[in-house]
Amino acid sequence: KMLISVPELEWDIIMTYKVDTSTSTHEEMNDPLNIYPNPIKVGGKLSISKYKYANDKTLVSIIDISGKTLFKKFISVKDGILLPSNITLGKYWVIINDGVTKKSAGFVVE
């Protein structure tokens, strides 16, 4: 009988997004979503820069660190994202999805 020890395994989380490459270039897909100000004050307005597909059909979600969706709405992100009243002090993720590209960024409310 032969015993082989197996070391503990570690798992990484991998996120996969399907992107229509006929309308996006490799460079655009790898550009980070830039939001400011970060940190932001309670009730403030997040602005987004370098977002090339922003239009009136952009789905914006804000998720807290526990994974709970606190805000999900189709808005024009060109005008910024006014934080709703249920967004209080803490760390959050904003996810922007215009149907072609899906990007996210973390932010802090102070």
Protein described:
By secondary structure, the protein is mainly β. Helix content is 5%, strand content 36%. Strand 1 and strand 2 form a beta hairpin. It starts with 25 loop residues before the first helix and ends with a strand.
Distance from N terminus to C terminus (CA atoms, Å) equals 61 Å
Low-confidence stretches: 9-18, 24-28
- Across the major sheet, the strand order is 4-3-6-7
Query: In percent, how much strand structure appears in the residues?
Result: 35-45%
- Biggest sheet character: 4 strands, antiparallel
Q: How many β-strand runs?
A: 7
Helical content class: under 10%
What structural category do the secondary elements indicate? mainly beta
Silhouette:
globular
Please state the CA-atom Rg, rounded to the nearest Å: 18 Å
Count of alpha/pi helices: 1
The succession of helices and strands, N to C, reads: HEEEEEEE
Q: What kind of assembly state do the chains in view correspond to?
A: single chain
Average pLDDT taken over every residue: 77
Quick description:
The protein is mainly beta. The protein is built from 1 helix and 7 strands. It is globular, with a radius of gyration of 18 Å.
Quickly list its features.
about 110 residues; mainly beta; three-stranded antiparallel β-sheet; 1 helix; about 35% strand; globular
